[in-house]
Amino acid sequence: MSGLFSALNSSANALEAFQRALTVVQNNVVNSSTPGYAAQSLNLDAQPFQPGAGLPGGVSAGEIQSSRNEYAEQSVQQQFSALGTLEQKAQNLSDLELNFNVSSDSGIPGALNNFFSDVSSWSVTPNDASARQAVLDSAQQVVQAFQQTSANLAQTTNNTNTQLQQNLTQINDLTSQLQTYNQQRLSGDTNDAGLDAQIHSTLEQLSEYVGFTSRTETNGSVTVLMGGQTPLVIGANQYGLKLSFSTPAGSPATVAGGVPPARILDANGNDVTSMISQGQLAGLLDVRNNVLPSLSGGAYQQGSINQLAQGFADRVNQILTSGNISDGPPPVPGIPLFTYTAGSPTSVAHTLSINSSMTPDQLAASDPGPPPVSNGIALRIATLASPTNAADEINGVSYAEFYGNIAAQVGRDSGDAQNQLTVQQQVVAQARTLRSQSSGVSLDAEAAKMIEFQRAYDAAARMVNVLDTMTQDTINMIPLT
User: Fold this and answer.
1) CA 227 – CA 278 distance, rounded (Å)
2) What are 131-145's pLDDT values in tens digits?
3) What predicted TM-score, i.e. pTM, was given to this entire model?
4) 175 and 153, same structural domain?
């Protein structure tokens, strides 16, 4: 009789084990598309079979194991961080590229071409009032083109600053979520598959914004270190990041009035900008601290647009002031055509304007020589379009070519970022595919498991019915006293 009860107990344990296995399969199927979810499996432990010792064998439910491959997870996170960098740079550089039209009919190149063309016409009839007025009008177009470009770059800088703050807010929000998940795990939810999925989904989202390393501690909590050094989350504690616009104490500004760089500070106020090399945050910092200052200037450089504006204005003014408005007697020397704020190298393009004292009849056309040439000054300014003299060039090229080089560099950087982005998108897709193969849910495999466990469950149920019938028959055979 004890053998029947023992066999019945063994069959009941098997029923429970197969029921739990079916529940795990059901959870896998339901969560097959849940972000961060890894397939679970139930270990079935064989029980010892020694009838003589009262051990009827059978099967019991063991621990539930996750198929998550942490190496594959880290690979996806690393590639996703690189993708975030390129996505942000490609987007910002593409927007920046719109400010640099290389067409000779618009923007700075168009304004310069019109100015040189009108100066050339003036040189043919140096005393013609309409020709002089045309020169002033086209000079005003040059001023407006530089001011507009400067304003566009300033707006781009402001937009980038806003994006940086939004990016940091996202990072701090995600690390706050991870802090909450850690608290739940520390409270005992160490084997919760749903919580595990939320943690890894959040880590993947975080990797798009900033590069980091993470590890799961023995207590189940996740430690996240930005750049492998700066703590973002440790146990139940979160360490937020802050944005600062200031020059480092050890690197004071070298250009007066230059916009200070963007810096990222940790929870203790330490500068951790150098720790950021991947993610959208890294892409934004590169554009904000390197690309934009190279164009519009910053704390450490004047910026190519300001350099061009100053070089052009200074050279035109030098030529005009070397000539005469009237040969006299006495001769009346020329006056500058352009003005800008002195002592502020990074605001030349923004403050460039026409000299308020300039009128058409004060344009100096005469070169006193020797030999004197009545239209010599006008001719010298006209040759700035295709200079043959080093003094008429900027960095060894014409003003139009200098601008073309600026626009070409922005275009190359934008194109390179777009090409790299396309490649990186494929790399991310491959990393995700490999992760899915190792820890994702295969509906075909789960269907096969479901059939297998359902049949095992049915067999165990039939065994229970048989044993129950045998037990009842045995009981009925016992004579009543």
Assistant:
1) 8
2) 999 999 999 999 999
3) 0.87
4) yes
